[in-house]
Design a protein that fits this description.
heterodimer, A: alpha+beta, SH3 type barrels, five-stranded antiparallel beta sheet, about 20% helix, B: alpha/beta, Rossmann fold, 3 domains, five-stranded parallel beta sheet, 11 strands, binds iron/sulfur cluster
Amino acid sequence: MCLAVPGQVESLHDDAGLRMARIDFGGVYKTVCVETLADVAPGAWVLVHAGVALQLLDAEAAAESLRLLAEAARLGPTP
Amino acid sequence: MRFVEEYRDPALMRGIADAIVRRATRRWTIMEVCGGQTHAIVEHGIDQLLDPAVELLHGPGCPVCVTPLETLDRAAALAEEAGAIVCTFGDMLRVPGTRGDLFSVRARGGAVRVVYAPLDAARLAERTPDRAVVFLAVGFETTAPAVATAARWARARGLGNFFLLVSHVRVPPALEAIASAEDTRVEAFLAAGHVCTVMGTAEYEPIARRHRLPIVATGFEPVDILEGVALAVEQLEAGETGVSIQYRRAVRPAGNPAARAILDEVFEIADRPWRGIGVVPGGGFALRSAYHALDAERAFPLLAARAPVTEPAACRAGDVLRGALRPPECPAFGRACTPEHPLGAPMVSTEGACAAYYRWRGAEACA
Ligand code: SF4
């Protein structure tokens, strides 16, 4: 139930008093509510659950932790 | 998909698992507290990869499983006796209530609809002003902001026919209850990543301190879970306790303040019964007084007059949810209880531990 899916913000609009965003989930588009984000712009990666954005994803933190993991697992850098 | 595929790399998984096994000087007992993590662990055999170093206990991380039987019966009564349109997440429809599940309510003519977003239920209410629309609101802190968003919108639009049957639960009091139990075997927790995405990690600090445990906010992909275990084992081996974050791409220490503000506006902390566990102090959310007009419990008098219900004795869901019993050890598992004929919610929910073992281990688990 806590499953949340990453997607990329394509555009933002207002719908009946709610801030909404059109999100690209790997080629599948869905409109979700972004009232839950203080600040969001097209191009941002967000985590979506039950029709609202839970948080902005931190791409730098993601890349760094993967690099550290690969090192720790002595696999060399992942491609 | 980005932020997903790279966390399912089998070579990376094995590398981290081997590093954990090399690091461990003894076998540690770690509980994960999210049904999504439980399914990933069983699906990818993470428990088997880690077996020499770590025993993984599955915690109460399935909101569907802990929703009281009584709440399901109330939802059924609203659809069948009050003529309301009951909306909820798809996961709830096959959970057995006293008189069958919500699918059977629908078969008997009750209006039960599956929605992806609570806002969809509020919009349905706006389109059907002559019908009461009730959203059966289940879920952890991850889901409550979506429900709060719908409640705020319905109130701002002045909708008089949108109601919430609230059964939201909070994770930290459940961890506190498990860690406080006299016979607890838990030496570290993996906290549910998306709950922490919303709430942050501050609520876990006192639990970690009081019980001298590592608590690691952990994601859901196999590599996330293994990294969460690695961080916990490192802390255990070093004799350290405290809260740390594995799931850094989505969890900040303060969570998401904007989402928390919406949650706070609509909900307050309340005691809540957890199915199989009992009343957990501070274990859930209830609507604040400004939102009482949306509260189905207050709006529909037929709910107040209902007799208490008892759980089927054969189901050991309470023990499974506390991590005291592994699903295949339940005498009913795979025999009297299967996903087609479930005795308890953990066998039907996509996050239930019994369903995880049945789906991914099947006969092997039964043997
Ligand atoms: S296997 Fe079925 S009966 Fe046993 S605890 Fe799980 S849900 Fe309940």
